[in-house]
Design a protein that fits this description.
The protein is of the alpha/beta class. It contains 15 helices and 20 strands. The protein has a 7-stranded mixed beta sheet, with helices on both faces. It has a 6-stranded mixed beta sheet with strand order 7-6-5-8-9-19, with helices on both faces. It has a 3-stranded antiparallel beta sheet with strand order 3-4-20, with no helix packed on it. The N and C termini lie far apart (about 70 Å).
Length: about 450
């Protein structure tokens, strides 16, 4: 089998080579998952729970090694990588606890003569497709509930960051996951591998995290066989600061919501709507924080994932400036010319219809738009076809909640800059996706409801 290289985006250097799988490897993975499916589905929930909890403990044991691996293939800061490992491990702990609580119901039929038994069963072999921006967490957020539900899986990690997925798979094996239950296919030909899975009648589930464009293509393919589908797609998160908001708290939240992982997150704040009464003060405070950021391989902000990513963010910023925006802050980047770094940037006076507002930036750029009325704000915020995450900072809690409920987004951070939590349902509205990950809802995504009508003669 041929191989492909994995590079460090901070240096451009090759750090590993991995197998470049194709149709044959994709099919072999489904063969293995199918062979293991019946036994794993019949494994007592308590046993599956204990395996997942051991994996949680192993991830914490190897936290530093996993974080270093993420830094080397993804480029994010070490602090971000450590945080990701802890977050990723939590999905195994959460679903270890949920595995033993699969729900159902039992009761008499209103018409009499029968009893109704409703239960859940594993959906079957699940195909998982994960992105590069959170190589550990995006894998565990899918593997955890799938295994807890009794499914076996085939996983295709992003070609940019396959090493973390392989490391997680090794820990699952060490924890006691039987052969064939988790199968990883690394590849540079994602289309061939995923299409093979979607066309295979033994695959009954597709769970994808990535761009809306690719998600739409996969949904069309899944429709041919009516494959159970979960899609966590693109975002364009608004960050709202009202006139009575605590500006210092809003800036702290903005630094997390915008600059975590260098802005390369589907939940990243993408467009900042700040009330006219406080826009100057907020922008000045945010600018001071951004200018102080340390950018570099060992800094607070790492590189973007590729040269193509840098080019895309550069074009969006240039387009905004041409439309009338001003650069009010820009952090320094390493001067050695190595790596795919883009300077963290704050833009003021950004037109509400600028291209940078309409498109997901996926980089460390904060465009600030001024608003004057709540009606104007909600019209601008909800004009996007995306509806994954949003953030609202307001002084009065009722006001913040009222705004949050009026925003078309699956998740809203109220006076906080982080929405992700393994115990909460992660997902979006409109073109940001279908289904939810995390929480009880995430387990349900890997189950089918089955109803048994039991004859019950009346005396």
């Amino acid at each position: 089998m041929s191989q492909f290289t994995v590079e460090n985006p901070a240096t451009g250097e090759t750090i590993a080579t991995v197998p470049d799988g194709g149709v044959a490897e994709a099919t072999a993975a489904v063969d293995a998952a199918t062979a293991a499916a019946r036994a794993w589905a019949r494994t007592p929930a308590r046993t599956r729970s204990e395996v997942l909890h051991r994996t949680f403990e192993l991830m914490l044991r190897d936290r530093e090694e996993l974080a270093a691996l993420i830094v080397s293939e993804n480029g994010k800061s070490l602090a971000d990588a450590r945080g990701e490992v802890t977050y990723a491990a939590e999905f195994f702990r959460w679903y270890a606890e949920e595995a033993v609580r699969t729900d159902g119901s039992y009761g008499p039929s209103p018409a009499g003569g029968t009893r109704t038994l409703v239960t859940r069963k594993p959906v079957g072999v699940a195909a998982l497709v994960t992105p590069w921006n959170f190589p550990a967490a995006m894998a565990t957020r899918k593997i955890g509930p799938a295994l807890a539900a009794g499914c076996t899986v085939v996983l295709k990690p992003a070609a940019e960051t396959p090493l973390t997925a392989l490391a997680v798979a090794r820990l699952l094996t060490e924890a006691g996951v039987p052969d064939g239950v988790v199968n990883v296919v690394t590849t540079t030909d994602a289309g061939a591998v995923v299409t093979t899975w979607l066309e295979d009648p033994r695959v009954r589930k597709i769970s994808f995290t990535g761009s809306t464009r690719v998600g739409q293509l996969l949904l069309r393919q899944a429709a041919d066989r009516v494959v159970n589908s979960s899609m966590e797609l693109g975002g364009n998160a608004p960050f709202v600061v009202t006139a009575d908001a605590d500006l210092d708290a809003a800036v702290e939240g903005a630094m997390i919501a915008k600059f975590r992982n260098g802005g390369q997150a589907c939940t990243a704040a993408n467009r900042f709507y700040v009330h006219a009464d406080v826009v100057e003060d907020f922008t000045a405070k945010l600018a001071a924080r951004v200018e102080a950021l340390k950018v570099g391989a060992d800094g607070e902000i790492g590189p973007l994932i590729s040269a193509k990513a840098v080019d895309g963010v550069t074009k969006l910023v240039e387009s905004a400036i041409a439309a009338g925006a001003r650069v009010v802050a820009r952090a320094e980047v390493p001067s050695d010319g190595k790596g795919y770094f883009f300077p963290p940037t704050v833009l003021a006076d950004v037109p509400a219809d600028a291209e940078i507002v309409r498109h997901e930036i996926f980089g460390p750029v904060a465009p600030v738009i001024t608003y004057r009325s709540e009606d104007e704000l909600l019209e601008l915020v909800n004009a996007s076809e995306m509806g994954l995450a949003a953030y609202v900072y307001a002084g009065e809690l009722q006001h913040a909640l009222r705004l949050g409920e009026a925003i078309d987004a699956g998740m809203v951070g109220v006076n906080r800059g982080l929405v992700s939590d393994p115990a909460a349902p992660f997902g979006g509205m409109k073109q940001s996706g279908i289904g939810r990950e995390g929480a009880r809802e995430g387990l349900h995504e890997f189950t089918e409801i089955q109803y048994l009508s039991v004859a019950w003669p009346e005396d």
